[in-house]
Each structure stands twice: as structure tokens, then as C-alpha cells.
Amino acid sequence: MTTKTDTLIIGGGVIGVCVAYFLAQRGRSVTLLERNDIASGSSYGNAGLIAVAHAVPLPAPGVLTQGLRWLVDPASPFYIKPRLDLELIRWLWRFRGACKEEKVLQAIPVLLALGQASMDLYDQLHVRHPLDDAFQRRGRLFLFRTRAGLDHAAEELDLLRRFGVEGAILDSAEVQDRFPLAAPTVIGGIYYPNYAHFHPARFVRGLAQLLRDQGVALRTQTEVLGFETRGRRVVTVRTTRGDFQAENVVLAAGAWSAPLGRALGLRLPIQPAKGYSITARRPTDYPEQPVQLSEEMVAVTPMGELLRFSSTLELAGLDRRINQRRIDASRRALREYVQGMEGLEELELWRGFRPLSPDDLPVIGPSPAHENLVLATGHGMLGMTQGPITGKLVAQLIAGEPPDLDLTPFSPARF
Questions:
Q1: DSSP letters of 363-389?
Q2: Which terminal residue of the chain has fewer beta carbons within 10 Å of its beta carbon, N or C?
Q3: What's the domain count of the chain?
């Protein structure tokens, strides 16, 4: 059986669903393929942050030196599992090339523009649609237990202020006023007002239900097996539920974009960055304030009746095994920074893979080898932050409209 459609989207996470939404808004016939269920990957268990001010890319001067220390500690916030993997070696070489001050200064305004454009779209989406996702705009508070950690973060705030980012350095008393559950060992904090938070899976699934109601075909439990190309066009996508043909194809498969890309002759430098989260029942006295346990790099986010703490970045390939030491480190950090967390009722332990590019910028744009394929992947830890604007930019590309943002920094041809 062969199904024909105007645009075929591969991937049912936040990126794919947002692409489908903005194409449907333009009256396009859309079919979306997802190998599992909608929002079953990293869109499900992430920190639920719209992190506009998170604009300093992961590769930066000094990161590799720090990374060498972390490399030998499987419980560290950024762990690279030693292994002989040519794709990882190539990725690390490109990552090394991005760890330069001039690269960081070029990336910050680009990431800020993406984040702010998405925040504006989130505001619009929540005005237009009854999305039951606990969306709140309460900023984010970074907590510190060491003077060195606070001083380093203050330097980063100074850098971001040069690009118009607002933030305030707080002493311990000011932290207590904003977040009364801060432990006595917290010596200070930094508050960034331009963050929002929500329940990420409820957002993606709510948007997907709107699309179903509008007649958009969302084909779940449909795994892509391969492609047929002719010249510079992708003519058929073969799946476990038949063949699909489309005028335009969008690859938005997150961490699985690289292996799918290889089937098309593309070498996408994207590594699956494993992260963990624990979702618990939210204590009745927990305030509506996301916090970051900064030295341990653990995010804590209220999500309606739930509380989620998430952490770590582990480059270990598509290895789904759970590193219990990393989970225990997150639990320990929560108790050290936040009071009253000893008796939490934990509901779910999750791990998933974020698609991380070596320069920490997403890959958005036409395939260099296929005239009807658009790539939308590589968003790293900012998939939720950049989801709506990525969806709109891809829809504009396919519709032949001028994009809202310059796509040059995100071009797949940059690698």
C-alpha cells in the first residue's frame, strides 16, 4: 500500500508536531510518521523549560579541560563514555573546533533570537488553544552553594547582558524570599526572568490532538525502514506500515535523525545525549518556581501536580541502560539544595536521548543532497525551547515564504 501526501514528516516529538501545526495552518496536506507514540522520546521526560536566556553554547573555552576531568567520573554532569566510535571521534573534533570565544560570541545572539521567537509563539499558542499543560512564566532561579560557582555564573550573566539578557544576582536572604525551600547552605542565586515552564508531553500531545481534529494524519507505531531516491529527490519512504510518497519530506527524528540520514547518504554530526529525569508528586508547599541546582547541573521544575528533577548529559551512544550512580547523584543534590525533599513520592524514572550537534546549534534547512528534503534536528537540550520557531521556519521554507530568521547559522551544509 502506498500513501501520498503533500508533506511527510518523520518524527513525532515537539519539532515534528510543530512543523505539522504550522504547515496545517497554511492549508497543506500533512502526514506525520512516528515510530512509537507522540512525544515518546526526549519530548516526554525533559525538564519542561522554555529557556530563552540559556544562550551560551555547550562548546566554550575551557569546556574540554573540564570535560577531561568529568570523563573519568561516570556520575559527573557531562560524561563521555570511552569507546572506539568513529562518528563520536569526528563529533568531538568538531566540538573542539567550536570551543572558541569568537564562536561563542557568534552563537549567543542566534540562540537568543531562536528562543525569543519561540517564546512569542508559545504565548500565541496558549491564547489560541486550550492546552492543558500547566504553562507558566515565572522565570528561573539558579541556586549556588559555593562562591566559585556563583562567581562563574555572575561572569556568564555579565556576558549575556551584553546581548540584552536580563538577570539579577541575589544574596541568600533574597533567594529565601523568592524560594523559601532553599537550604541554609545556599549562599546566593541568579534569577533570570525570561524563562517559562510547563508539562512538555502534555503540550506536544495537546497540539497533536488539535491536528487530529483538523484532519492531519498522525501515523504512530510506524517505523521508517528505508528510502527510495531518484536523482536529487526522495520519492518513497518505506515503513513498517506501507510506503509513503510526498512532494516534501521533513526529517525531524531527533537522536534518530543521524542513522536515518545515513540511509540517505547524509552524514549528520549528531550524537545522542542521554539525560535522566525523576518525576514525583509535587509537595503542597512547593512554590511555582523552577530552580537550577547549579553546581550539580540539576533542573527542578514544577509541572502542575508534579515535580520533575532532571540532569546530566551522557554521550554513550544509543545505550538505554540506566546509570544508577547518576540517578543517586541527582537525588542527593535535590536534598542538599532544597528543604523537605526527603519524603518525595517518586512516580517515574525516565531516560532519553537529545540530538546534540557539535556546535550546539540546531540543523534547520534543505538537505545539501536532496531538493525535496528539509532537515529539522540537532536541537540538543533546547528542543522544547526552539520547537515552535523551528516548526514555523520549516513551514515557511516548504511554502516558499521568506523565513522569519536568517537560516545561515543552522544550515546543514555548515558541517
A1: EEEE-SS-TTEEEEE-BGGGHHHHHHH
A2: N
A3: 1
CA distance 389 to 5: 23
CB atoms within 10 A of CB 55: 24
d(CA 375, CA 10): 10
Is the CB of residue 363 less than 8 Å from the CB of residue 392?
no
Residue 239 has a pLDDT of 98
Helices (H), 188-268: 200-213, 257-262
Q: What are phi and psi of 299, to 5 degrees?
A: -95, 135
| SS3 at position 123 | helix
Domain holding 195, by residue range, is 2-414
Which pLDDT tens digit goes with each residue over 77-104? 677 777 788 899 999 899 999 999 999 9
Residue 82: its pLDDT value, please?
75
Query: From CA 331, how far away is CA 36, in angstroms rounded?
Result: 29
* CATH number reported for the structural domain that contains residue 246 in this entry: 3.50.50.60
C-alpha span between 258 and 269 (Å, rounded): 7
DSSP H helix total and E strand total for the chain: 11, 19
* pLDDT score of 331: 94
